[in-house]
Amino acid sequence: MTLSNPSEYKTALRRLDALVAAGFEGNAALEAEFRELVVAIDAYEDQLGLMPIPTLPESLADMIELKRQQMRLKQKELAQLLEVPAGRLSQILSGKRRVTLDLAKKLYERLGISPEFILKKA
Question: Is the pLDDT of residue 53 over 80?
Answer without folding.
Answer: no
